[in-house]
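thought: fold this chain, then report.
action: predict
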Amino acid sequence: MAKTNPFQFMQQVRAETAKVTWPTRREVVVTTVMVFIMAALTAVFFFFVDFMIRSGLAGLLGIFN
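observation:
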């Protein structure tokens, strides 16, 4: 691999960074809100799944007690 000096490296980094398509503030806010909504829905779903499993096991163990 060819070695480059730090100045050339920084020029290459700046050139590559200029090619990046940065999201707008609105896109960042919308995707952040969507992540929080999906996390909340997932938490609620797993809460109910856990509740059903816990209730089923409690009922099953209650039969044998």
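thought: worth noting. The radius of gyration is 26 Å.
final: tokens above.
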